Model the fold of this input.
Amino acid sequence: MNLQEIVNGLSLEVKTPSLSIDRDVTGGYVSDLLSDVMGNAAEGSVWVTLQIHLNIVAVASLKGLSGIILVNNRIPDTDTLKRAVEEDIPIMTSPLSTFELVGRLYALGLRCR
Amino acid sequence: MTNTEEGVFFLTGKDFTNAGAASSSLKGILERRGVPPDIIRRMAIAAFEAELNVIIYAVAGMMKYRVTDTEIFVTVQDMGQGIPDIELAMTEGYSTATDHIREMGFGSGMGLPNIKKSTDNLAINSVMGEGTTLEFFIRIRSGGTEQA
Done:
């Protein structure tokens, strides 16, 4: 699946407009614990979380994740967005709760690998 | 023929702005050397967890690496409080992190277990009031030099 399709399908707001969202998403992972994501998320996955500090970018970059979706209208820190652009990790936001958002990702056909 | 490369990254306690930078640099070095992606993934997990432990718990520390054609060795040494009970610290879910650290999504008690799971060997030495040293390695090639 393409990240663009997910952004359109879920009406996500893209917070890193300078980054291309024409990229492959091969799965999804949900967690607010960084060690859980480090240990268990698969490369190419989109990550759903409520964490907004800049260390989420380091985790996504080290794991080769395809992007980060922030739930509940959480606003990422300015540092986070700056780092995300540097590391080429798109960040999107949604007003939906984690439960609702992930339900819709699943309905689009996305799975955890 | 061996082609060994080594170096060191310095780590500062509580410096969350640069958390992950050392691990990211190490990952870049391994990528440039053409180390297989599954090995890099495992080393990235171990290095990140060890780096974050220093940033969360210690005053300062350093991450030394040595990469050969057959192995990646990493030593992470810190000036910190030390670990009173290593066995307990290795228990998944056990953590001494503060509420603030936990709210950031760290301190879930998965760090040391993640390092152990991701590496071929992990050794921990800790002296209370002085600091902790982690040594771990991952074999790049099966059939590489075995450690005694």
